[in-house]
Amino acid sequence: KVIVKPIVPNEVTAGPSAKTPKPSTFARSFTIAALQQYTNSFSQENLLGGGMLGSVYRAELPDGKLLAVKKLEKRVASQQKDDEFIELVENIDRIQHVNVVRLMGYCAEHGQKLLIYEYCSNGSLQDALHSDDEFKKLLSWNTRIRMALGAARALEYMHEACQPPVIHRNFKSANVLLDDDLDVRVSDCGLAPLIASGSVSQLSGQLQSIYGYGAPEFESGIYTSQSDVYSFGVFMLELLTGRKSYDRTRSRGEQFLVRWAIPQLHDIEALSRMVDPSLNGEYPAKALSRFADIISRCVQSEPEFRPRMSEVVQDLLDIIRRERPSNESIGD
Q1: Residue ranges of the Protein kinase domain (predicted)?
Q2: Which of 150, 180, 215, 326 to pair with 171, CA 20 to 30 A apart?
């Protein structure tokens, strides 16, 4: 593997850095000066969100094109040497799939490290489900299955098509973004090496468990592709119920979505009561029980009993096929 060490340019230009040798990637190198200009000095108005790795800002290029800039936290950035960061950029850039947020560029200057991604205009599925009642009305049963399928295809590609396989390690509805057409783009793919390092690793374990996405083996510090499958099952439960993975405003027995839902997934009456009220009962009963069956297999406490993501993709496709008129085709 060739590791390219970036050379810090002596002068800072307003456009993409011309002096830093590019890694073997299509991602473009930006200067801090340019990114400050495009984000209005990383202003609060341009803040899109934040997590354990850093904050994400909206950036507007001079031609009006929008990008999303992830500014890594100082403690995360300081744990990565420049050549390690360039290697990370190269690895992220190899993850190319229609349902994965595309890396557009990077910046490594003055001790700061930033990743620049395509911009997804409709925000995250977490916001769509839990923050915006008007937007939530657009999320019909069929739309939700299509979103589950898009996210499943992204994880299937990472686990089973990428060599070496890519484990997401932080899969949740906040990392499932929506474009203009409400098509799914999974974000933060390829960032597991940042999460795995030192203090962030402990924090990520706690956060995943606290917010209800972490598989049981997380507590022992074990994380595999099957742990992603568990998190995907929690995400499917959010789509089904419209509830958060963890909600401390609910009564004690209902705070953790998985714990509350598991006993009810095979009871058809209890299951129909669990469905997101904003769907107004508009869903096929058989499709609902098949959807619940996929969830219950994904959130098995033993990793070896969970399905591979390719099985989940096929099961979701089966649900769609059974509900569609025979003359309709399923788009890829």
Answers
A1: 42-320
A2: 180
List the chain domain ranges: 28-118, 125-323
CA 8 to chain centre: 31
d(CA 289, CA 152): 18
Of 313, 305, 294, which is closest to residue 149 (Cα–Cα)? 313
Query: What is residue 245's DSSP assignment?
Result: S
What integer pLDDT is reported at residue 8 of this predicted model? 40
Lookup result for tokens 């295809």: 153
User: Average pLDDT of 154-158?
Assistant: 98
Q: How far apart are CA 56 and CA 12, in angstroms?
A: 23
Q: Could you tell me which CATH number the domain at 125-323 has?
A: 1.10.510.10
Residue 210: the pLDDT is 53
CATH number for 28-118 (one of 3.40.640.10, 3.30.200.20, 3.40.228.10, 3.40.50.300): it is: 3.30.200.20
- Compute the distance between CA of residue 293 and CA of residue 284 in angstroms, rounded to an integer: 14
Spatial separation of the C-alpha atoms in residues 184 and 101, rounded to whole Å: 9
The tokens of 260 are what? 């509350």
- The burial of 128, by beta-carbon neighbours within 10 Å (0-12 exposed, 13-18 middle, 19 or more buried), is given as buried
User: 143-155 as b/e, with b when 16 or more CB fall inside 10 Å?
Assistant: ebbbbbbbbbbbb
The answer to which of 10-14, 121-125, 184-188 has the lowest mean pLDDT is 10-14
Peptide bond into 164 cis (omega under 30): yes
Q: Which two tokens stand for residue 320?
A: 């769609």
